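Figure S7 source data.
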Amino acid sequence: MTTESSPFDGIPLEQAVADAFAADGWLAHATQQFHERSGQQAMARAVARAILSRRPLVVEAGTGVGKTFSYLVPTLLSGERALISTATKTLQDQLYGRDIPMLVEAMGLPARLALLKGRASYLCLHRMELARHDDALQDAFMQRALARVERWSHSTRRGDLAELEGLDERSPIIPLVTSTRENCLGSDCEHYKACHVNLARREAMAADVVVINHHLFFADLAVRESGVAELLPSVSVAVFDEAHQLNETGVQFLGRQLGSRQLLDLAHDVLAAGLQRARGLVDWQLMAASLDRAARELRLAVGRQYPDAKLRWQGTSPDDVDAQAWETALAAVHAACGLAEEGLATVEEMAPDFVKLLERAQQMTAHCEHFMGLPSPEYVRWVEVGSQQIRLKEAPLDIAETVKRRMLGVQPAGDASAAPANDAVGDDDFDPPWQDEAESAWLAGDRQAAEGVQPHVQCALIFTSATLGADARLSWFTEPCGLQDADILQVESPFDYARQAALYVPRHLPRPQDPSHSAAIAHVAAEGARRLQGRTLVLTTTLRALRTIGDVLAQALGEQLEVLVQGQASKRSLIERFRQGDQDGQQRGCVLVASTSFWEGVDVPGDALQLVVIDKLPFPPPNDPLVEARSKRLEAQGRSSFADYSLPEAAVALKQGAGRLIRRETDRGILVIGDTRLVNMGYGRRLLASLPPMRVLGGPADYQAALEALTRASTTDCPDPG
Ligand code: SF4
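Tokens for the predicted iron/sulfur cluster complex:
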């Protein structure tokens, strides 16, 4: 923290934490919402101990515990430099914009805060200038969008594109006015001093508390794997909220990827820079056309596949793909990248853009060569096929080794190179903005690694989420994250689930594999939604079920209620509309039908949501290459892939889905799970035990009575639905 003194100087941390959370402590005076909660105090004490002992701590804190304050208060009181990482930008913004400033002010602390997002969140002044002179930017919509960005660029200080109201996150203008690690010119850039990415980075370097997200964190770790920079060694406390997403996010970034989109982007950037800065010196059209054609032929080589198909790839070509056609297409990509390398090398010295373009072409050649060989052991390889695009991917099965080596400082016995040096992959929009080693104030701790010495991690690592597992050791989270030796704390939700919520498993439904199952679920949901005037969220396990259930509900309820289906609008607008429901009397009540990404992160407190319907038990899809590889590894270890992987995955996902129902102490509602395996199969008991302790409704009559109770009064009157 800064050298200014804090009002808590001299008070032992555990004492300061206990004082803060006491019934008449300063938190009670600072915020009206505060009330004393034993779970919150227990978690805060555990976090304080972890900070003092530097032992890793994993805390599962049920909904309503108030876990954000439980880790923020001890972290801020400790006076240590801290990193806080979240899974979503929403929580990142909430912490930086609301929770931390409120606490810092209430505590009178001299802490400096910073928010750091990925590169794709910040305007790149250089790329904006390139776009302005881009002959290919003929489209009127794109020109209008660019003009809007340019007008805003004169007034913004942070250059965070989130400031541009109404700009769709998927807008095609964004890649043209933001940078990636590959195309950023770094200190060769004429805008280097005014650069928004650098400004955000400098602020982070000077701050006491930095809020980032997991994508950024792993992108940085991945780059460090290549011997560049890392953030962790310079902080003393690192908190990972929404930690249940850590493994899947890390896996995305710690592997390797080559996509047709990247090839097309290179073709576009080569042509734009070539024509602007070295027209006539190289045949830029030929170079771009060859990259473009190679990208398209790579996609065509996999033939017609279901959209979003993932093709297993264990040999030299992916399953169900003609090996000869695949090898020819990859060879064409290799040749096109090679041609680009040759041409760019001849003009490299004319402009920094050409240096970066050459590096990109070289990196793609290297990726291509890697994918022309067999997969690395311990890694899984597959191909993702979209309607237009294709991505070649290779990833570790989990992040355990990386966490142990890079965060816990544990060296794998006898092998310093257990994990191959990989390149960061994943969404470009979370590329790390701190890869420049020259900015070494922030990266001071990195020198040991740069010199080949493993860092001894002196950082308290705290991982937390509402859902981290279904057993006492939270194995679902700790095993893949390499945290089996961490201290574990489970804090129960303070909600009275038996009184606030009821669970109903309809026995009359067809088996989940039956083709009529989705329609039957839709009828159950329609009946409930009619009674409740909407207020119903249907969570499906597949996109096919999403479409069927959405169609049946629209037909059955379309005239009375508004049926919102995932994909009709952005997640944020769908949830916003659902929250409003018929509250203002002007609009109809809502039913929302959604799949995977809505099983978590949907927070609709109050009586806008009273019924959650889950179509099936959310087992991981067995034909997913990553799932299959993880299952095989367990079987090879003599373990059961069903008991040790599929079942815990389903339990955690079910707990997350069920967690949408009760968000406050005054909420009331019913959870319907449309899968009779929950009551007919032996493993159902294990899954039921993972759910919050709701009352179980015995049959249709109980269910009708519970619905009736919900219709009698709003949740503010707290009726018991049964
Ligand atoms: S330094 Fe990189 S990100 Fe910043 S303006 Fe230049 S190219 Fe863009």
